[in-house]
Amino acid sequence: MSIAEFRSFCSRNRIVLALSFVILALVVAVVALMLNRPAESLPESTPESPRMSSAPATEDPEPEPKREPEPTEEAEPTEVPETIEETTTLAPDIDEWSNGPLAEPAPQFVPMPEPSEESIATPAGPSQADIEYVRAERAYLEDQILQSDAYIARKTAALETSQYHLAVAEDYGDTLRARELRAEIKTLEADINTERLYGDMLRAELQALPDW
Question: Which of 18, 46, 100, 148 could be a cystine partner for 199, CB 3.0 to 4.6 Å?
Answer without folding.
Answer: 148
